[in-house]
Amino acid sequence: MNGLSLAYLGDAYYELAVRRYLLSQGITKIDQLHKQKVKFSSNASQMKAINYFLKENILTEDEMDAFKKGRNGAHFGRKNIDIVTYQQATGFESLIGYLSIHNEERCKELIAKAIDYIRLGE
Q1: Can you tell me the distance from the alpha carbon of 93 to that of 67, in angstroms, rounded to the nearest whole number?
Q2: What is the per-residue burial (b if ≥16 Cβ within 10 Å, else e) of 21-30?
Q3: Residue 39 exposure: Cα atoms within 13 Å on the Cβ side
Q4: What are the DSSP E strand ranges found in 53-121?
Q5: Mean pLDDT lowest for which of 10-19, 68-77, 80-89, 112-121?
Q6: CB burial class (10 A; 0-12, 13-18, 19+) of residue 56?
Q7: How far apart are CA 77 and CA 70, in angstroms?
Q8: Does 65 participate in catalysis according to the annotation?
């Protein structure tokens, strides 16, 4: 599967995990849920999470390959975000998509690390 297809899957998988996390925190107001969801799943937050993973050297070789597939496949950004942020976020989503297929436990572990890192970065 190519990197952008993995990112497509990873985006949905990660967002569902974030939504479950937010509900587990007792947040019930829709506007508050939406604001918090955006905080955790924005391209900037995903870039911060993947940069943390890279800095801490916690990805395996296969995981790095999955990240790079998505990052390198993202040639066009969005109007409201710079290309580097978009590429890093797409790489993060590709990693999550890859792991959701090949190692769901590891996927959940990295999502928990990402959520903790983003949450503590407030």
Answers
A1: 8
A2: bbeeeeeeee
A3: 16
A4: none
A5: 68-77
A6: exposed
A7: 13
A8: no
Query: CA–CA separation, 43 vs 38, rounded Å?
Result: 9
Give the tens place of pLDDT for each residue, 74-106: 777 666 788 899 999 999 999 999 999 999 999
Per residue in 35-84, pLDDT (tens digit) is 999 999 999 999 999 999 999 999 999 999 999 999 998 777 666 788 89
* Ordered domains of the chain (ranges, CATH): 3-120 (1.10.1520.10)
Catalytic residue among 11, 31, 65, 116: 11
Distance CA 71, CA 90 (A): 6
pTM higher than 0.85 for the full model? yes
Amino acid in the structure at residue 38 = V
